[in-house]
Amino acid sequence: MYGGLDSNVFLQYLAWVTYPVVLITFSAGFTQILAPQAVGSGIPEMKTILRGVVLKEYLTFKTFVAKVIGLTCALGSGMPLGKEGPFVHIASLCAALLGKFMSLFGGIYENESRNIEMLAAACAVGVGCCFAAPIGGVLFSIEVTSTFFAVRNYWRGFFAATFSAFIFRVLAVWNKDEETITALFKTRFRLDFPFDLQELPAFAVIGIASGFGGALFVYFNRLIVQFIRKQKAINRFLMKKRLLYPALVTLLISTLTFPPGFGQFMAGKLTQKEALVTLLDNRTWAKQGIAEEFDYIGNSQAWKHPHVNVFVTLVLFIVMKFWMSALAITIPVPSGAFMPVFVIGAAFGRLVGESMAAWFPDGIHMDGTIYSIVPGGYAVVGAAALSGAVTHTVSTAVIVFELTGQISHILPVMIAVILANAVAQSLQPSLYDSIIRIKKLPYLPELGWGHHEKYNIRVEDIMVRDVRYITLNCCYRDLHNVLLTGHLKTLALVETAESMILLGSIERAQLQSLLSQQLGRPRRMEYIKEQATADKKRLSVISNPCSEDSSHRASQEVRFQVSSANGEEAKHWCIQKDFDCVQMSQYVPYTANSMSVSCLLCTISMIRMMSIAEWEEKQLDEQVNFNNCKIDPAPFQLVERTSLHKTHTIFSLLGLDHAYVTSIGRLIGVVSLKELRKAIEGSVTVKGVKVRPPLASFRDSGTSSSETEATELHKLWDRHKSISLPQDHMPSESDEKSQ
């Protein structure tokens, strides 16, 4: 549309702006209506789910439809948005839906651990088919989603990711986009002498600068979100007009990238894919001293401006795309941030490479041969370094090799990525961890750098002491009260309220099942039938007081038929109260007045209701029978002196969401992800938690905590030795003599 309207600039502008605004607005509206869970990247939520936390409505078919259609529109708009995170989410949705389908046939797919394994493999598939990089995809998914990774899932991830990448590239051949299966962004760098050792400092500079840039990107993105949230008036207005914010952001970015306008100074005409292809080109754009002058052919013409050299164009491209990408990923549409950051990093590397080519126009002299600088290699290094800094991963180096099809720059890429990670990790959390904090997802943060032995915070300092529990000799009324007062998934089972000896834990569903069995409809109906039979016998006795009037009464007596309006109302009222009025109509006699019979029916129903209430009270006062209940006899337990570091390791390794705190077998508290997270972040201020400044309240430094605990243990042992322990019977001398 833009190319066909070259005669009128205003119409070109309308076409250039309207198309993205309509697509982004549709994507935001469709996603918001169908499934708001589809908004955003998907990797932070998958990281939380793989941690063991259940996020409602996140892996449903409705979310799958919203994610696919919303992502298609968002990518088609041309905004600086990525697809890697959404691909991970889509692959996880496929895995979850396949798992549900296969569970219909029973077997291993009903196992919860198998579902987690499928989701772990799905994360690798998402990255693998996004870039046709199965090896880098598996490694990247491990780095961004797992604190501890089960090695048994390793080959499963490779298996699934390899097939996904293969099908992705085969489809390109079938569509005649490619002649054969090749790398997605194939480069043609020389292999005999790709770089010189003298260039390694420049690659190191790219890595360090990318580390600062990655940290700045994460900080700037979080700053935008926090600014909008703090402005309450703006926030309330945008909550009412949900589609206004994405439309305004898209309008701003589209206006700035309009090619006849400011876009001519930043290659605004190019899409992300076209920009990346030109940035990875092995030909040099700067013409100082280059024997073979490079002609700007095809898409590379967008970087050429008659009044501005290529360095200014690259700088403007980096600066503008930097804040545009940080702003664009805050739009409530399915989108990621990896690809925009990847392109910005490639542009920064290209800038350094072109600068090196300008400073060394004759190239590098080696063995009497002149090797010219290859700026495309610098672009590869910059792309891997900046994307690695933003995501806190090293596997971006492997993704780059698979993406370009060449491994010639393995050393500079690894150096730059490691340096970028070292700088970025010391300044800011990764982009995914930052989004987890913004969305307040229940994920356990990592412990900061430092000496873990100095973390003298213990479980007893952060645990919740008011624990919900049930006793072994409790009644059904206690179960009913406990289920009404809280929403805990599991409850502790103790021996008695006095001893508090922990016997195990019971899931909430099991307790609800016990209660429903005791007070459910089958038992209630059984009681009603028994009462009905008893009432029938009683009424038959009352209606036949003596044998001589029996024939007279029988001649006048007719069985009650529910025919009058009052009878219908009474029947309906009785059914609502779970009474079987049909049974009652079989034995309620009347002679003349149907109204009196209706009153009799209502009276019997009220009596029946009172008897049901009394029966329920009796049932609630009975002792609970735990024989038919699944009890976990060994729930995860911690002693009160367990350190914060050990607790964090156990929770992360086993994927726990809570653990009971015991002292010599007695239940004294419970610690969950919430308390542990607050302790690590240094804000333990919840009610029911013993407040102590986390990571700062060091105990008496005169004696170490290990020495104190050792002396206490020795005292305890000495006290036990003083008690006479039962010993085996030793034969006396008289016994020996007698033998």
TrEMBL record:
UniProt topology in membrane: Multi-pass membrane protein
CDD domains, per the entry: ClC_1_like
InterPro entries assigned: CBS_dom_sf, Cl-channel_core, Cl_channel_volt-gated, ClC
GO cellular component entries: chloride channel complex; plasma membrane
GO molecular function term, any single one: voltage-gated chloride channel activity
Spans through the membrane: 13-35, 87-106, 118-142, 154-174, 200-222, 243-262, 310-331, 338-360
Keyword entries, A-Z: CBS domain, Chloride, Chloride channel, Ion channel, Ion transport, Membrane, Repeat, Transmembrane, Transmembrane helix, Transport, Voltage-gated channel
Keyword rRNA processing on entry: no
Annotated localization: Membrane
SUPFAM superfamilies: CBS-domain pair, Clc chloride channel
Gene3D superfamilies xref list: CBS-domain, Clc chloride channel
Signal sequence, start to end: none
Top-level taxon: Eukaryota
PANTHER family: CHLORIDE CHANNEL PROTEIN 2
Protein name: Chloride channel protein
